[in-house]
Write a structure and sequence with these properties.
The protein contains nine helices and 14 strands. The protein has helices at residues 25-34, 53-62, 72-83, 116-121, 131-145, 167-177, 194-201, 237-247, 299-313, and strands spanning 2-3, 15-20, 40-44, 65-68, 91-94, 106-107, 125-127, 156-162, 182-184, 208-214, 220-227, 254-256, 276-283, 288-295. The strands form two sheets. It has a seven-stranded mixed beta sheet with strand order 1-3-2-4-5-7-6, sandwiched between helices. The protein has a seven-stranded mixed beta sheet with strand order 9-10-8-11-14-13-12. α4 links the parallel β6 (106-107) and β7. α1 crosses α9. It is globular and about 65 Å long.
């Protein structure tokens, strides 16, 4: 077992954290962010034992919180290891898809609704949201809560992400071979992010989810088209903007901002930040709008969200809203 000091001298109030799967893209991002958090000590296993169940169980016994940066099946196995420790086991923060819709786990989108950050802070089991659902839920949930967007609206969510969101194999393909300039995928309409997108948006009709990847490393746009005549209550572009603005008022990470003046938006402007921007592009004359979320798929869409949740769970000052 290896400890990383992070420059901490007073170890009495330090949270000890083990990242199970720290060599992956999300794990590396979490580790880098935690280097800047002096009240967290990251504990690692040597390469020779990092997949050894007994060694992992031992390190889990010695830490306060374990971050799971693993494929779904491996995340479930790691959870079972932690559970085998009983009341002495650590808190778990799962960055996989395995537990995002599980009723025993709190969904780690602190801005989801009033009190969500407190639920995260008080939970021993938190699931980090997916990058795509983060943008989609942030746009849809406030409009459904306000009664403007019917829960059975035929929603289509179109997204484009940098190739880093596809994991090691996609990163290797793009960086070694160039990759396609743009690629639609998930056209079997069974993408693993769909269940959480529907559940936490409060949609009763299954949305159509159309993901895509561009030949750039990171940055994401989520866009949702709307027809006003299918909405409730005299909808306008200003009204949609106002609902979102009121919902996220005071949030440090979710910003509702005016649409870009030229009617264009690119995905990379928020790279290396944990910010989520929401915009409404509308044409009241035609009764149509496109809701757009922009975020870094490795920031608020992955590692940044994980660290936000970790700070809440460990009682460390965090940016929430």
């Amino acid at each position: 077992m290896q400890d990383r000091d992070n420059g901490v001298t007073d170890m009495t109030n330090v949270a000890r954290v083990f990242i199970d799967g720290e060599a992956g893209t999300t794990g590396l991002g979490i580790r880098e962010r935690l280097r800047l958090v002096p009240s967290v000590e990251v504990v690692s296993l040597p390469d020779a034992t990092r997949k050894d169940p007994a060694a992992r169980r031992d390190v889990m016994r010695a830490v306060d919180l374990v971050v799971l940066c693993l494929p779904d099946d491996a995340a479930k196995e790691s959870t079972a290891l932690a559970d085998s420790l009983g009341s002495t086991g650590p808190k778990l923060l799962d960055a996989s898809t395995a537990h995002r819709t599980h009723n025993a786990w709190v969904y780690g989108f602190a801005e989801l609704q009033p009190g969500q950050a407190e639920k995260i802070a008080n939970s021993r089991r938190v699931a980090v949201p997916g990058c795509y659902p983060t943008g989609g839920i942030a746009l849809l949930r406030p409009l459904i809560e306000a009664g403007v967007l019917p829960a059975d609206y035929p929603v289509t969510v179109n997204v484009v992400s940098g190739y880093s969101g596809g994991g090691k194999s996609m990163i290797a393909d793009h960086e070694a071979q160039g990759g396609p300039a743009f690629e639609l995928y998930g056209l079997g309409l069974e993408h693993k992010h769909l269940p959480e997108l529907q559940l936490y948006s409060k949609l009763v009709r299954r949305p159509i989810f159309a993901p895509s990847v561009g030949h750039y490393r990171q940055g994401m746009l989520v866009s949702i088209p709307l027809h006003y005549d299918l909405l409730n209550g005299g909808t306008s572009t200003d009204k949609l903007h106002g609902i979102l603005e009121a919902y996220y008022a005071g949030s440090k990470l979710v910003h509702v901002v005016p649409p870009t003046a030229n009617g264009k938006i690119e995905p990379e402007a928020l790279n290396n930040t944990d910010t989520l921007e929401l915009r409404v592009y509308g044409n009241d004359g035609h009764g149509q709008a496109v809701l757009v979320a922009r975020l870094d798929n490795l920031g608020k869409g992955a590692s940044g969200a994980a660290v936000q949740n970790l700070k809440l769970m460990m009682g460390i000052e965090a940016d929430n809203g």
